[in-house]
C-alpha cells in the first residue's frame, strides 16, 4: 500500500489534472468543439486512472486492517457515495457547487504548497544561520582557548620572574648582612685602633712624666753626692718633700658631682631605653623592672670587685719603685684615675650576665639573652668603677625583698599602694656615701610584699642557656702588673 501511495504522490497526477483544467479553461473559447470534447474525455480518463489507483490503495488498506477494521468508515462514507453515484436520483449538490468545492480545495492545496515551500525556505535560512552561529561559536571557543593558553604562559612567566626576583632579594639580603657584619668588624677594629692610639698617647705622657721625674731624681742624687761647705743639718728641706695634692685629690669634688649626675642620667635615660627594649620580649613590667634593678646591683658588685683587684695589681707594681712625696695609696688612686680606660669592663659585664643567669628572682624567654641590655650594664659598670676612686667611695644602699619602706631612701612608684608599709620590689637603688643618701631610689610598695618576696625566693634557680654562659670570651686587657716599669 505504501508503495502505491508513494507512486501516486511521485506522479503528481492531481497537479497534471489541475494544469490540464487550467489550460483547457484558457483555450475553451478558442478551440473547436471536437477539441473541447477530446480534452474533456482526456480529463475523464485521467480522473478514472486516478480513481483506480485510489481504489487499489483502498483495497490494500482494508486488507491490512483485517476483517473488521475500517468497516464503519466504508459503511458511513464509501457505500453512501457509491449509492449516490450509481443512482438516478438527482444530487442535492449542483455541478457548480461541486466545481466550487473542487476549486476551493485546489486553492487550499496550492496555499498549502506555498506555505510548505516558504516554511522550507525559512528552515533552510534558519539552518544556514545556525551553521554560521556554530562557526562563530567555534571561533570564539578557539579564541577563548588561545586566551587561556596565553594566560597560562603569562602565569608561568610571572612565577618564574617572581622566583628569580625572590632569589635576587635573598641574595641581596645575604650581601647586605655580610656588608653589615663587615662594617661591624671594621667598627670594632676602629675602636680597638682608637684604644691603642689612646693608650699610646697615655704611654707617651707617662714616659715624658717619668723622664722628667727621672731627671729630677738624678739631679737630687748628684746634689746629695757633691760636697757642700754647709753642714747637712742646716740644708733647707727640698721642695720635693713638701706635701702636694695629687690629681685625684684635686679633681675629687668635680668627679663626685659628675658621677652623681651620671648616675641620675642612668636612671632617667639608659634605664628607660633598656626597659623599652626588654618590653619587646617580656610583657610583665614588674619582671622587666626587676631585671634592670638586679643588673644595676650586680654591675656595682662586679665593678667594686674589679676595682679591688685592679688596685692590688697597681699597688704591687708601684710599691718597689715608689719614692714619694705622696703616699703609696695616693699614688695608686692617682694612677687609677689617670688610667680609667685600662679597666676591663667587658669582664665585669660577663660576670654580671652570668650572675643574672642563675638569679632565682628573674626569668627570661629562652630564645633571647641578657646581652640585650649589654650597653646599660657596661655604662653602669664604668660609673660604679669610677665611683670607687673618690675620696669617699659611693655605693648602693642595701636592699632586701619585703623590707620596710623608708622615705629617706626611696620614692614610691606611680603604681604603688601608698598605704602599704613594705616594699614589694625595687625599681632603682639608692646611692649612698657612707651613711648618707645622695640620690633616692625608687620602689613599689604593696600589701603582702613579704609573702611575695618569700614565694619568689623559693622558686627554682633558672639554668642559663649556652649562649648566656658561654656567649662571651673573657678577653681581658693586660693587667697593670704586667706593664713595663717604664710605663709606671
Structural descriptors:
mainly alpha; 66% helix; 13 helices; three-stranded mixed beta sheet; 488 residues; three-stranded antiparallel beta sheet
Please characterize this protein's 3D structure.
- By secondary structure, this protein is mainly α.
- The chain is 66% helix and 5% strand.
- It has helices spanning 2-11, 13-27, 33-65, 71-86, 95-225, 247-250, 252-278, 285-318, 328-338, 345-357, 374-387, 449-457, 466-469, and strands at residues 395-396, 410-412, 423-428, 431-433, 436-439, 441-445.
- A 3-stranded antiparallel β-sheet has the order 1-4-5.
- It is rod-shaped and about 195 Å long.
- Residues 255-445 form the Mitochondria-eating protein C-terminal domain.
Question: Helix and strand layout, with pairings?
Answer:
Layout lengths: L1 H10 L1 H15 L5 H33 L5 H16 L8 H131 L21 H4 L1 H27 L6 H34 L9 H11 L6 H13 L16 H14 L7 E2 L13 E3 L10 E6 L2 E3 L2 E4 L1 E5 L3 H9 L8 H4 L19
Parallel strand pairs: 2-6
Antiparallel strand pairs: 1-4, 3-6, 4-5
